[in-house]
Amino acid sequence: MKRNLFGVIGAVALAATLTVGCSKSMSMGAGGMASPAASATQAASLRAALNGLLAEHVSLAAAATGAALDGRDAEFKAAAGALDANSVAISQAIGSVYGQDAEAAFLPLWRKHIGFVVDYTVGVATKDAARQQKAVNDLVGYTQDFGAFLASANPNLPKATVADLVKHHVLTLKDVVDAQAAKDPVRAYGAIRTASQHMAMIADPLAGAIVKQFPGRFPGDPNGGAATLRTALSTALREHVYLAGAATGAALGGRDAEFKAAAGALDANSVAISQAIGAVYGKEAEAAFLPLWRRHIGMVVDYTVGVATSDTPKADKAVSDLLGYTQDFGAFLASANPNLPKATVAELVKHHVVTLKDVIDAQAAKDQPRAYTAMRTAAGHMPMIADPLAEAIVKQFPDRYRG
Length: 403
Known about the structure:
Blueprint: H1 2-18, H2 42-69, H3 73-98, H4 100-125, H5 129-153, H6 159-181, H7 185-198, H8 200-213, H9 225-252, H10 256-281, H11 283-308, H12 312-336, H13 342-364, H14 368-381, H15 383-396
């Protein structure tokens, strides 16, 4: 059992380290020898990877249940497929390190609770109270099974503690489904953000326990300021993509109430990102960053409207504006931090723009499988912005972000 769990964590962490390759040049010590910043240690990579993986699980689960309850069958199937890809990616990571037996052991365990969530959603949709209650009972029972699994693998993870944390995951996801069923998109998107943010309460203790169990394999402090900064930036930027994708999907689908709710949640995410910048550079920087960040969201809306109305000039202008924006954003960060070259930042943000455009194009074409694949790709790109940003901040303020 230990081997199985370590296969998950080790492979995910190894995959996460690949995302920091673009910032290696900022981690070179004297003589050109690699000297990883505190935000780029294996422990920090582990924490960031687990948070990203679990937050994505919530985003995709909510997309699937929302589509199911609204009768959007094609989108439900695509979202469910993306959700399963999120699960399969972990099991494949196990198999790539420890073989098919380990991969086969984990996948059905993880899929099991997703099946119970589907059962609950069907019960809500059909007003079958008995089915709903059975699904809730099954989910609560699952928390004990999952807690036992982790406890048997890691002595630093008590079964009861893990079970309680997973129970909160179940309850917050239930809140999402209930709000979606009540046709209250504002409450639903608030619940989605709450459920996503809760996943850190699972990912962080899990990362800490693994580092404690295998300190030689995961050097660094997963709970230090540097790791916390990297994880917070990566998680917030990934959430930005999923909320933007939800908003554009709702807009293109003519679901006005949902669009407004998703746009509101997206703006709350923007405020949170600006507050993270303010925590580093002060209130004036926060006040300057927020309208700059909001600006590119407005351009994305313009592109979406252009696509929806077949207004090619409007769509083309939005793309041109977004490409120009990457230079402005690069200049802003370069002026704040000498470790962030304008051209490098602009290129990374350009990839964000391009990957988000791919999401919108697929949504407009009503190609749901391609849209959800594009969404995962776009979200997966965001650590390529967050990781170098965190590393540059740690280099700029080493005394504030140790460990």
